[in-house]
């Protein structure tokens, strides 16, 4: 039986949103696209969020992914950065959910562990491993796109396993899993 699936991986950000798409046929991955959305030139944070939403919708409508894997923001010392990343992630998730595409989030450490076997691997190590796994001729200058691709590959490697990550198939499942966020 021929099984085929397309996975969109997203590394959310308000300066650069990295993304990668893989196609999986009979458990073999091939690279479909590796790119980024540049947001540096925009100063209005709401315009950035709108562009993240629109680009994610465009990717979904063009490639029809079966699933979306997204990197979860990690807790850092700068609360403002964390809030901005959370908003970017939320907008990308909302785009997927609005098109009924299941979304799963992975921590940066889990993604690095899935790709390199080391949860503390550098962006460069992750990118080089993806280059080897997917026969990428030349790595991009910014590694945000390979971070997005890494989320997709991590999701593929974890498919079928019991996941300790959060996964949503639509607004209804999001609400069910987040009762504490409802007033």
Automatic annotation (TrEMBL):
It catalyses: Endonucleolytic cleavage at a junction such as a reciprocal single-stranded crossover between two homologous DNA duplexes (Holliday junction). One of its GO terms (molecular function) is crossover junction DNA endonuclease activity. Mg(2+) 1 binds at residues 11, 144. The keyword DNA damage applies. The active site is at residues 11, 71, 144. GO terms for biological process: DNA recombination; DNA repair. Its EC number is 3.1.21.10. The keyword DNA damage applies. Its cofactor is Mg(2+). Homodimer which binds Holliday junction (HJ) DNA. The HJ becomes 2-fold symmetrical on binding to RuvC with unstacked arms; it has a different conformation from HJ DNA in complex with RuvA. In the full resolvosome a probable DNA-RuvA(4)-RuvB(12)-RuvC(2) complex forms which resolves the HJ. The RuvA-RuvB-RuvC complex processes Holliday junction (HJ) DNA during genetic recombination and DNA repair. Endonuclease that resolves HJ intermediates. Cleaves cruciform DNA by making single-stranded nicks across the HJ at symmetrical positions within the homologous arms, yielding a 5'-phosphate and a 3'-hydroxyl group; requires a central core of homology in the junction. The consensus cleavage sequence is 5'-(A/T)TT(C/G)-3'. Cleavage occurs on the 3'-side of the TT dinucleotide at the point of strand exchange. This is Crossover junction endodeoxyribonuclease RuvC. It comes from Zhouia amylolytica. The gene is ruvC.
């Amino acid at each position: 039986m021929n099984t085929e699936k397309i996975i969109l991986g997203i590394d959310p950000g308000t300066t650069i949103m990295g993304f990668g798409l893989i196609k999986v046929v009979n458990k073999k991955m091939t690279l479909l696209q590796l790119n980024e959305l540049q947001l540096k030139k925009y100063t209005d944070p709401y315009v950035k969020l709108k562009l993240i939403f629109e680009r994610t919708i465009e990717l979904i409508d063009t490639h029809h992914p079966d699933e979306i894997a997204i990197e979860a923001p990690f807790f850092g010392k700068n609360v403002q950065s964390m809030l901005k990343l959370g908003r970017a992630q939320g907008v990308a998730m909302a785009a997927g959910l609005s098109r009924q595409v299941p979304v799963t989030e992975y921590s940066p450490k889990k993604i690095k562990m899935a790709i390199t076997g080391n949860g503390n691997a550098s962006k460069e190590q992750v990118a080089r491993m993806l280059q080897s796994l997917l026969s990428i001729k030349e790595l991009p200058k910014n590694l945000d796109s390979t971070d997005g691709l890494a989320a997709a590959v991590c999701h593929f490697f974890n498919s079928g396993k019991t996941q300790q990550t959060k996964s949503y198939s639509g607004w209804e499942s999001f609400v069910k899993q987040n009762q504490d966020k409802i007033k």
